[in-house]
Write a structure and sequence with these properties.
The chain is an alpha+beta fold. The protein has one domain. Helix content is 35%, strand content 19%. The protein has a 5-stranded mixed beta sheet, with helices on both faces. Strands 5-12-11 form a 3-stranded mixed beta sheet. It has a two-stranded antiparallel ribbon with strand order 1-4. A hairpin with a 4-residue loop joins strand 13 and strand 14. Helix 5 packs across helix 6, helix 6 crosses helix 7 and helix 9 packs across helix 10. The chain is globular, with a radius of gyration of 20 Å. 37% of the residues are buried. The structure holds zinc ion (ZN). Zinc ion (ZN) binds next to helix 4. The site of zinc ion has 8 residues, from helix 4.
């Protein structure tokens, strides 16, 4: 019965992946080696990341080359490797009109997202008193399952019936202008919002494990820029806006799944609100209300360089690297080199 994804997922979610050091993708016995690199080695070599570090929730900095999770040989060399190959192939010759690549990136970023979740929770478990019980809430596990469905869809034919759009997640893609001062790689996550953004050379992608809720309110993302060409600094602002919106999410989904030996069918049946706040027009709140000042802090936090403040309390004005107020995209120059240009 090992071919049944639902069985594999039960095993992966039964806690072993978080606390027992079992394979994060199937819950099976891990290999004795390093496990799976969360940011794959091919990307570390290509974008010169071997000595670069990622900051974790508990404040520690961990080099990408040591950022690994337990994984078994079968998953590592099997379906996970196929997911990597699709991305490597796309990056060789990016074709943004190919819509199926969004699924490929959805799976790939889900893999990275789950890897980081597992890494973060394992580290939190290490420090916590086991007698205090599990820090993993029911809502958290439910959304973890949703992410696993997306990842595991690489194992066999999977049909998603999604309520909001073509994918059971939100994804936006951007063409990136090269700028040597910013390098070829950038990576950010917001675990609260379950969002993840990555810039790989000429390609920028932002993924949200929200069942497509953000896609529904903005199919083209912040300022309708999906598919457009952005400077790395502008990509960081778009990412911050998506991370912020993701963190405002106040609902998840109810879904059912059905599996045969040949296919898996996952159906989103309904949106399930978390807080049950009813809006003025009578519907349930899906996103908490947007606050420009909170968003401004988020934009500054995710910026790869120091820049002028996004919000100036003395004038009450906000700046953006994205819009020039004439319907076009701002030139990034004044943000990139604000002093030397003047
Ligand atoms: Zn495995």
């Amino acid at each position: 019965m090992d071919d049944y994804i639902l069985t594999i997922m039960d095993r992966a979610a039964s806690g072993g992946a978080f606390v027992g050091g079992q394979c994060f993708a199937c819950g099976g016995d891990p290999t004795t080696g390093l496990g799976e690199h969360i940011i794959p080695l091919w990307a570390q070599h290509r974008f010169d990341l071997l000595d670069k570090k990622l900051s974790l929730l508990n404040g520690t900095l961990i080099p990408y080359r040591k950022l690994t999770v337990p994984c078994c040989q079968k998953c590592n060399g099997g379906f996970l490797s196929n997911i990597e190959q699709e991305i490597i192939k796309f990056l060789q010759k990016p074709d943004f009109n190919n819509l199926s690549v969004r699924y490929a990136f959805g799976r790939w970023l889900c893999k990275i997202f789950i890897g980081i979740l597992v890494k973060e929770t394992t580290l939190l478990f290490d420090r916590s008193d086991p007698s205090k019980g599990s820090i993993i809430s029911h809502d958290f596990l439910e959304e973890f399952t949703q992410a696993q469905f997306i990842l595991q869809s690489a194992r066999k034919r999977t049909i998603f019936h999604s309520l909001h759009g073509p994918h059971p997640f939100t994804i936006y893609m951007y063409r990136i202008e090269p700028d040597d001062d910013f390098g070829e790689f950038d990576f950010s996550t917001n675990l609260a919002g379950q969002s993840i953004a990555v810039r790989l050379g000429g390609v920028g992608v932002v993924f949200v494990n929200d069942g497509g809720l953000q896609y529904e309110v903005g199919p083209k993302g912040p300022l309708n820029l999906d598919g457009r060409r952005l400077h790395p600094l502008q990509f960081s602002e778009v990412s911050a806006r998506i991370h912020y919106k993701a963190a405002l999410r106040d609902a998840t989904h109810l879904y059912t799944s059905f599996e045969t030996p040949h296919e898996l069918i996952v159906t989103q049946n309904a949106v399930r609100p978390f807080s049950h706040v009813r809006l003025a027009e009578g519907s349930m709140q899906i996103f908490r209300s947007w606050d420009d000042i909170e968003c401004a802090h988020m934009i500054e936090r995710y910026r790869p360089i120091k820049g002028p403040p996004v919000y100036d309390p003395s004038t009450g004005l906000f700046i953006t690297s994205l819009s020039n107020n004439r319907g076009g995209i701002q030139s990034p120059k004044r943000f990139v080199r604000p002093r030397s240009q003047s």
